[in-house]
Write a structure and sequence with these properties.
Two copies of one chain form a homodimer. The two termini of chain A are 40 Å apart. Chain A is α/β, with parallel strands linked by helices. The first copy, chain A, folds into two domains: 169 residues, Rossmann fold (3-Layer(aba) Sandwich), CATH 3.40.50; 195 residues, Dehydroquinate synthase-like, alpha domain. In chain A, helix 8 crosses helix 12 and helix 11 crosses helix 15. Chain A is built from 15 helices and nine strands. At the A-B interface, strand 1, strand 2, helix 8 and helix 9 of A face strand 1, strand 2, helix 8 and helix 9 of B.
């Protein structure tokens, strides 16, 4: 077991109508609020109005930046930061899913400087300060509401990269399961795929942390039990709440304490698919994971079988992989490339972009032949 | 699922030699350190010297209070607070197990006032401020290192009471599994019994929180796998580390989020045994729990069976209880009164004290006939 520190500064407000505490939470932090959101779904489901009511209560001055894409791009980050800089915002309020909050995290770093936020993500400079960030989450998936990570795309450099920094933990995050009632069936499922993948990326990381492994099993078993029920009952409060809390728990540190690192090879591979074809993140993960597991069968057979025994009651590594596919199918997530409409003819382009992006995993290193085999499995029958 | 907030302010420093960060952690908080510890075991195992070296590094002024008992008493709390008050200490450093840290938590509230700390515990007054507390943990058991709870005895009023207040979270806690190497076999086992009981008290609380239930299973299964191995290999770093982290996780909020409350009836019953006969806390819990479960069999049969199926692979509520006893025996913890040397002749005294202490559970209310039956089970063959 590795040394670790538990020090997660995000205050998580979870449950029915927690938005009612938003105003009094923001007031002591700042008056000039940069409100960041996506393509407007929050205007349809009432969340925008509820947020504005809170901001009015505390007589906040508000500047808005909307239109963040579901695979967020650096152009939006830089444009929003420009607005925030001119407005001299002293707090950022991100209302939306992972893409909005991830973008807001980099906006928080970019407002105080005079260059593109990409320099932080590409590790070309070191962040020294951040505008305080508060989030209102409307999609259960990425766990960004309680962690220090962000993922953003850059189409100029053809990269989709993850970034981590303690400065970008949200100060407060508000999670009302009711705000996820209008998330459609498919994106609800992709969120579940995403949270399961986060737990697995930690499980397949480096180091012996058996209690963290058990927390991984717990989270995935929760997703397996609740996920299919939720897809059949999208406005069930308890199902929404349980998936929402599972998503936060999958990537707020709990599945990582005591490890050297997570793996994140599957995420790296999936990011390339999203970058090239704008495929939803969760859908890329459910396609890549079985293929990655098949490639890793010989390298880490015991580890895969242990996972399968504890999560699926599976008797072998192959049975584990089939069980994983079965689970993904039970929540209507794709497990092969044809199900996300990407033909075999794209294989070379994908491989080349993966090599260009230096996709190489972390704990379990990926070389060109690994990636080729994984792609073959992704296209297999 | 109930609304909840995750906001645990304790920074947990976990692992080998984390004590090396103690000095630089204390320095910005205060210069005048009230050092609180127990009966001197930390002078034998080197922890005292390591702590003093850190305090010297930052040229701290130190006042000491030692002799905290393993079932801590309010007299020590008040005497230590008196010293801290005269010394004008601006930080408290508690070095020891749960009794030392629990005492230090109430000392932290008592230094700023001019009356006994018992007034806080007995809810006769409201705490308004606390001297900042830092802990160095030397026994894996109570979870006090990362929570807002303390338990103290008062022999004058014949009470052992729990108390909770956000003011008494330690600011930082240092957990080096090496510092628990010298904990003897029996107290190591009592610590495991205690952490298991904490997870169960939450499980048998009120409200539907299925992911928190799964975290309970995870923690107990970890204790079941590692506990017996640790008892056979008391200086094994990984076993010590895993039990230590399990103990923290059992009562730092993780097993409680989403519930209305925990139960704590078993703790209330156990506290009376400790109060009367100075029985180690963990040993009282392993005796009371099977008896409590037998009494609750008819009230919550499904809940007990679910627990048993998930933790012990048990097929019924009775099989669950027998499996629990089997687990406790596997770590050499007592499960009947004769094993802790309390004869049947004491039954009336115990019952009377339980009634005097108003032991009545929380989620699952305990009435006199419940307590009588539980006592009978505790004395049964």
């Amino acid at each position: 077991m590795e040394n670790f520190r538990i020090e997660n500064p995000t205050v998580l407000h979870f449950g029915r109508d927690v938005i009612k505490n938003l105003g009094r939470t923001i007031a002591p932090i700042g008056k000039k609020v940069l409100l960041v959101y996506g393509k407007g779904s929050i205007k349809k489901n009432g969340v925008y109005d509820a947020v504005m009511e809170q901001l009015k209560l505390i007589q906040a001055e508000v500047a808005e930046y909307s239109g963040i894409k579901s695979n967020p791009v650096i152009e939006d980050v830089d444009a929003a930061a420009e607005i925030g800089r001119k407005f001299q915002s002293d707090v950022i309020l991100a209302v939306g899913g992972g893409s909005v909050i991830d973008s807001a995290k980099i906006i928080a770093l970019t407002i105080p400087v005079d260059f593109s936020g990409w320099k932080f993500i590409a590790n070309q400079t070191i962040a020294r300060k951040a505008v305080p960030l508060i989030s209102v989450l409307t999609l259960a998936a990425t766990g960004t509401e309680m962690n220090q990570f962000a993922v953003v795309q850059n189409h100029t450099t053809k990269q989709k990269l993850g970034y981590g920094n303690r400065l970008i933990y949200p100060k407060h995050s508000f999670l009302d399961p009711q705000d996820t009632f209008t998330v459609p069936r498919d994106y609800t499922a992709y969120g579940i795929s995403d949270l399961v993948a986060h737990a697995m990326e930690n499980y397949f990381g480096k180091g012996d942390a058996s209690l963290s492994d058990r927390f991984v099993y717990a989270i995935i078993k929760e997703a397996m039990e609740i996920g299919p029920k939720l897809l059949d009952d999208l406005t069930n409060y308890d199902y929404r709440a349980k998936i929402m809390y599972a998503a936060t728990s999958a990537l707020n540190g709990l599945t990582a304490y005591g490890r050297v690192s997570g793996d994140w090879g599957v995420h790296d591979l999936g990011h390339v698919i999203s970058l090239l074809y704008d495929t939803p993140h969760g859908a890329t993960l459910s396609v890549v994971y079985p293929a990655w597991l098949r490639r890793m069968k010989e390298r880490i057979p015991g580890r895969i079988a242990d996972f399968g025994r504890n999560v699926f009651n599976a008797k072998s590594d192959e049975e584990t992989i089939v069980s994983f596919e079965h689970f993904m199918k039970s929540i209507e997530c794709p497990v092969r490339m044809n199900e996300i409409g990407i033909g075999y003819g794209k294989k070379t382009e994908i491989l080349e972009t993966m090599m260009h992006c230096k996709v190489n995993g972390s704990n379990l290193k990926l070389y060109k032949d690994d990636i080729q085999m994984i792609l073959e499995f992704m296209y297999s029958a």
